[in-house]
Give the backbone structure.
Amino acid sequence: MVERSEEVKLLGMWASPFSRRVEIALTLKGVPYEFSEQDITNKSPLLLQSNPVHKMIPVLLHNGKPISESLVILEYIDDTWQNNPILPQDPYDRAIARFWARFLDEQVYVTAMKVVGKVGEEKDAAVEATRDLLKLLEKELVGKDFLGGESLGFVDIVATLVAFWLMRTEEVVGVKVVPVEMFPEIHRWVKNLLDVDVIKKCIPPEDEHLDYIRARMESLKLKSV
Amino acid sequence: MADEVILLGYWPSTFGVRTRIALEEKDIKFDYREQDLFNKSALLLEMNPVHKKLPVLIHNGKPVCESLIQVEYIDETWAGKNSLLPSDPYQRAQAKFWGDFIDKMVPGVVRLMWGAKGEEQEAGKKEFVEMLKTVESELGDKTYFGGEAFGYVDIALIGYYCWFDAFEKYGNFSIEAECPKIIAWAKRCMKRDSVAKSLPDSEKVTELVPELKKKMGIE
């Protein structure tokens, strides 16, 4: 139990999947925190000082000490507050979980961003490429309720970027990137996620989120013209 | 049951070197199997079907992919001897942050130094030097990135040292002039058995460049 006063502050952004995943982890562990909404177009001195290398959110400040990079933050949270573990205990299972987390952030996210940001042939290619990557996730979910197995784990938290960002963009881009006929397991998994209180509490509200995605898409298209 | 540890690698790879060093630091017996990047073996494709990349660590038949994930796996599986990561969660997070920085930022840029020309190469050089300076200021006057103990961040970066001669030759600049502390640190690391055993010879790496360029179709 906490003996001294713990100060936990999250510099984040309401619509960012990377920021929200940290909130999921903190909420899962029952860690009280102060959320500080950051304007990434006009970065605060605190953000610049806390993450001088990347100048990006999310940044977790624990008793004033900053930790940056969402995957690093998730592991730090798991190491520091040991109730409701996020990562598995076994080293091999941990290695696999880390592998999938990187896959999601470095491959799926990067490719999926092109679906939102490109038009025409380039967009179609991005849709195909994203689907190819998601087929691997689809396979992983066979026989499991969550990517972490019986309950929500590290990879599920990271993969919320698929469930509540990529899949939400479908409405806005007008393409079913993740159709249920092709990805029945992923759809089943999203339903399982929505049954988890922590998830319901921590994902951005749908309507505002869709408006935000729409606005971002427009601005990305304007840039590429 | 005796542990069976196999490492599939490609000798000049800055990534495979990390895993070798980690295994050596822990005194783990392993079977190193040289792979041909340009003609991938059935074993490689079976063990890393997602990325088909090296290195792959196979422990008792089970594959672990991605070099820094392998280093952490080795540290957690063979715990208790020569810890590679700090035990304090905050220090550990800092180590992982820098490992991630090196892993994300450096690979994209280094190819430009030997594989590009003109403006592209100049831009690559500039970015590389900037990154190295950022890392150098994190090192400061410490012996190793973690302080007195050799570990994860040192392992993440040292593999590039055997490529420095190639970068300098093709990029026409001096890394020591830009980042003297990094060179001093690298020389300290090279005194460790695990590093000396695992890093390929600089000369051989430099000699490889024209061949690599040809294989990759770079002019």
Notes: The longest strand of chain B covers residues 5-9. The radius of gyration of chain B is 17 Å. The longest helix of chain B spans residues 89-115.
